Structures are given as C-alpha cells and as structure tokens.
Amino acid sequence: MTDKIQMRTPLVEIDGDEMTRIMWSMVKEKLLLPYVDLKTEYYDLALEHRDETDDQITIEAAEAIKKYGVGVKCATITPNAARVKEYNLKQQWKSPNGTIRAILDGTIFRKPIMVRNIKPAVSNWKKPIILGRHAYGDVYKNVEHRISGPGRAEMVFTPENGEEVKHTIHDFNGSGIIQSIHNLDASISSFAEACFAYALDQRVDLWFSVKDTISKTYDNNFREIFEQIYEEKYKGKFEEAGITYFYTLIDDAVARIIRSEGGMLWALKNYDGDVMSDMLASVFGSLAMMTSVLVSPHGYFEYESAHGTVQKHYQRYLKGEPTSTNPVALIFAWNGALRKRGELDGTPELVTFADKLEAAVIKTIEEGVMTGDLAKLAEPPAKQVVYTEEFIDEVTRRLEEVL
Ligand SMILES: NC(=O)c1ccc[n+]([C@@H]2O[C@H](COP(=O)([O-])OP(=O)(O)OC[C@H]3O[C@@H](n4cnc5c(N)ncnc54)[C@H](O)[C@@H]3O)[C@@H](O)[C@H]2O)c1
Fold first, then answer.
1. Which of 18, 163, 277, 282 gives 314 a disulfide partner, CB atoms 3.0 to 4.6 angstroms apart?
2. What angle (nearest 5°) sits at the alpha carbon of residue 7, between those of residues 4 and 12?
3. Ligand 1, residues 87, 99, 287, 307: which to mutate, most atoms within 8 A of Cβ?
4. Closest Cα partner for 274 from 85, 81, 135, 106?
C-alpha cells in the first residue's frame, strides 16, 4: 500500500452513543484512516451533545446530508424516562433517526449480510432479501375509540370548501371498538420513488404487496401510486437494468418469498414492514449482521447498522472488561457510504476499497474467526471467538493481503 485513497467530497459523519461509539472510533482508526484520506464533516450526536444543543445538532446533521448527499451514522440512544434520569436531560429528546428521516423524507431499507457459515433458518434463501418499510401513517398514527354500548359509528370528512362526506362504520348493538387510520399520497409517492430508486441502485427486482382485494380504496391507492410512478418514470430504467417490478397480494407474496431463493427488494406498508423486518432479521441470524440505509427520493443516502448502542456491552466496557461486540454492520455502514461517495464522485479507488474491505470482513468470518453473537449460530462451529478489537485486527490482516 502506498498512497492513501483520496476523497473529493466529504462524507457526513454522524457519531453516536455507548458501545457503537467505541467501535466507531476503532473502525476508523484501524480500518479506514490508514488507507483512506478520510474527508468527513463530523456531527456528534452523543446524547449529552444533543442535550447541550437542544437537539439542533441532529437537525444540522440532516441538513448536511442534504448538502453533500451521503452520510454514515452510528447508533444513538433514543431517550426514555430512564435515560432522561441517567443523563440528567433537559427533556426526552425525540429519536434522532425519526428526526433525520422526517427532514430527508426518506425510506429505510434493511439488508442482511450473508456469510456461508451462518445459515438462514429458511434453507432455500441463498441471497439477501432487502426490506423497505413505509414509515408513515396507518396504525402508527391511528385514532381509536372504545364503544361503550349501542349507537352508530360514522366516518366524517369535512372538506375546506365543500360538502361533508359521511360513511357509517357500524351500527353497534353492544360494546366494541373502532379505529381510524390515514395516509397521504405525497408520502406514499416518496416511498414508491425511494423503493424504485433503491431497487435500481442494488440491481434487484422490486416486489410490492398490499391487500387491495379487500381494501379497495385504501390499499388500492398504494397499488395505483406504485404503478403510476413505475409506468411514468422507471419502466424503461428497469428494463435496461434487467430487473422487474412485481405486484402481488400480501398473502401470495409471503408464500412466494418463503419458497424463493431471496435476492429481491420487498416493499411493504408500515405495519407489514414492521412485522416482516423482525421475521427477516431472525431468519438471517443476528441483528449485528443487518445493515440499514435511509434513501430519500431526492437521492440522499444515509447508511447505518440496524442494531442499537449495545448498552449491556458498554456497561462491561466501562468496568474495563473487553467485549465481543460485533462491528460488522457498522463496518458495512462505512463501506456503503464510501462506495456511494466513490460512485457519485467518480473515484473508483474508493469503490474498490469498500469492496475489498467488505470481502475481508466476510473472509474473516468464513475462516471461522468471529464475535460471540455469531459463534452461537455458526455451522461449522467457530474456530476462534474473539473480542471486538481482535476481530478488527483479523480483518485488517486480510485487508492488507489484497491492497
Ligand atoms: N439505529 C439506532 O440508532 C438505534 C436502533 C435501535 C436501538 N437504539 C438505541 O440503542 C439502545 C439499546 O437498545 P437495545 O438494547 O434495544 O438494542 P441493541 O440493538 O443495542 O441490542 C439488542 C440485543 O442485541 C444484541 N446486539 C445488538 N447489536 C449487537 C452487536 N453489534 N454485537 C453483539 N450483540 C449485539 C445486544 O446484546 C442485545 O441483547 C437504546 O437506547 C435504543 O434507543 C438505537
């Protein structure tokens, strides 16, 4: 290795909390800084700093991604009541991911990292299944009501200029429950755009599924928006890339996905995505092997690992104990960001570096060297169960062989 790889445009680097923050600096110091002349614009989203800045730092980080186009984020604490006390916070700040997602109007895609010696629980899944979850509305923004006794439940819409529209939901004879949900065409369109753009980026087929045979207005609206955007903007690009857009009913999709060999992007409504993403994570093995990327319809990308700050390991770290925390998804987040930066800037050396680093990580695990979480799943069993820093050193050794 001679000169360091140069970067043209800075990456937006968003630091975070606890054990992932510790791993973040290890990865930078050992796997990136020796090889890449890393240009980043740094935003520290450690909970203390979010509190000090009244969470302005989170907004600034999102705005920076708008400016530069690509960011990489470390896991951050979303404070609950216990964290407010632990960190003596001014208030219970919102989830940084939620704030950033709202500013970028993005969709989150999760993609598992597959290695030969961690077999998915569904044996015919040979390729990763990427999941895209619509993150607005439906049951997550519902209005619910407990009906105490007989009466009529109605749904009323009062237009700003126009006549009231009324539907009877049900004439109740006794007690029961009602729920109303909504969604927005603008949000569904953004979601659809992000899904088409990311399927193209990854060169995989896009599957979309709802239950429009039952929900003829609500779910059908999702289907129509997807179809319209596909026909108007993506059909030609998909044909050129040799990939397809496939719509099918959600129940049919579940049955087909289980029997498939994987390798598609599966776009789902909010609740379906919530349920299916946990199923996929569990089938593919470990949360520490799941990457996550926020894609905005305007072409901004933010990469991160899907797991949290691994608090329990951090508590051990603070006591001076070494931990076997898995840095793989975090390394892949950096790789994803560097590769995208390289693609956008026309710096193929950066893309090649990201590919080589990824290959070195996979090789390390496939040669039987892994952290404790993976050792529980490996088949054949791990040869060497290592602490985080040792794992990173093993990756460095394999990376050096190919640089
Ligand atoms: N994207 C994010 O920023 C994000 C996502 C989820 C949770 N969080 C935050 O993280 C904190 C901890 O949350 P949590 O405990 O529910 O989730 P977590 O992902 O940190 O941990 C969940 C479980 O998975 C294991 N695990 C996760 N990542 C691992 C890794 N890399 N190596 C080994 N084991 C790993 C942990 O030991 C733990 O048992 C919370 O404050 C939460 O707000 C942040």
1. 18
2. 125
3. 307
4. 135
| Integer Cα distance of 36 and 18 in angstroms | 25
Distance CA 302, CA 333 (A): 9
Angle between helix 388-402 and helix 348-366 axes, rounded to 10 deg:
120
Q: 394, 369 in Cβ contact below 8 A? A: yes
Exposure string over 232-267, b if 16+ CB within 10 A, otherwise e: eebeeebeeeebebebebbeebeeebeebebebbbb
Q: Each residue of 203-252: pLDDT tens digit?
A: 999 999 999 999 999 999 999 999 999 999 999 999 999 999 999 999 99
What was the pLDDT predicted at 136? Answer: 85
* pLDDT, tens only, 330-365: 999 999 999 999 999 999 999 999 999 999 999 999
pTM, 2 dp: 0.91
Using CB distances shorter than 6 Å, the residues near ligand 1 are 75-78, 97, 287-288, 304, 307-312, 325-326, 373
Pairing outcome for strands 245-247 and 205-208:
parallel
